[in-house]
Amino acid sequence: MAIQWFPGHMAKARRQVTEKLKLIDIVYELVDARLPLSSRNPMIDEIVSSKPRIILLNKADMADARVTKEWLSYFKEKGIHALPLDAQSGKGLKDILPLSKIVLKEKFDRLEAKGVRPRAIRALIIGIPNVGKSTLINRLAKKNMAKTGDRPGVTTAQQWVKVGKEIELLDTPGILWPKFEDPLVGYKLAVTGAIKDTILNLQDIAVYALNFLKENYPDRLKDRFGLEDIPDEIVPLFDEIAERRGAVMSGGIVDYDKTSELIIREIRSEKLGPLSFEKPGEEI
Ligand code: GDP
């Protein structure tokens, strides 16, 4: 989905989420397990402060399991409820309801004491684009719902999707914009495919990715591209990968765009295995 985040669009997105919040008991905030802080909306804490929330570390299958564990401890220490999830396969899905019940126990007990009949938990999924919101809604709804997209001029009533007997989910998620200000955050979002390639320079993204791999996953970098050693400088590293992959044009000129593209493509398609792009405690 190509979303242009102009100030007016951001204000509208915020308004839409705020409207939906009035209808629900709990927010499921989807983040990308590979970059759990960079894939959060910068204003989310303020926007949903009135509602209980569970952070779902989605795409956990693509993240480094060891680092995901560290993130779960990180959120736990902060008193934030968080769960790992793979919305595509459904792994982790079964943990959402029990945790939701724990989080909402006090509220529902209070309602019951007032004589309100027990009802399903009403939930809203929120996240930045591409984090897996539709995938999760479809999974929970156990069917493929047609994507309606934007229909200008048509006021659509909120639709609820039943998830078993105990959860009702708003069928359209809350979409909020990602962080834009910090270039490093931008590169992380780009290399994982959260933002469009055209927003940032392809070669810059690849340079970020190679430096990241060099530092954090040197053996996988070597294995994948058949390198004996990793050159210290970034240009020779590019050149070696280009040579191995036939991205050298006549006259020995390296096609840096092609090389950048293949590096990014292979990271995104998990050819270098599951990767986590940030760890708790690092500056972001
Ligand atoms: P939305 O924009 O937040 O609604 O994101 P989508 O649900 O459209 O998902 C974006 C892409 O991520 C799609 O290609 C999904 O198949 C993929 N995806 C979503 N969840 C997962 C997951 O848990 N694991 C993996 N590997 N891919 C996922």
TrEMBL record:
Entries under PROSITE patterns matching the protein: G_CP
One GO cellular component, as annotated: cytoplasm
An MF annotation (GO) of this entry: GTPase activity
Pfam families named in the record: MMR_HSR1 (PF01926)
Statement: the UniProt record of this protein carries the keyword Transmembrane helix: no
Gene3D superfamilies reported for this sequence: 1.10.1580.10, P-loop containing nucleotide triphosphate hydrolases
Lineage: superkingdom: Bacteria
Name of the protein in question: Ribosome biogenesis GTPase A
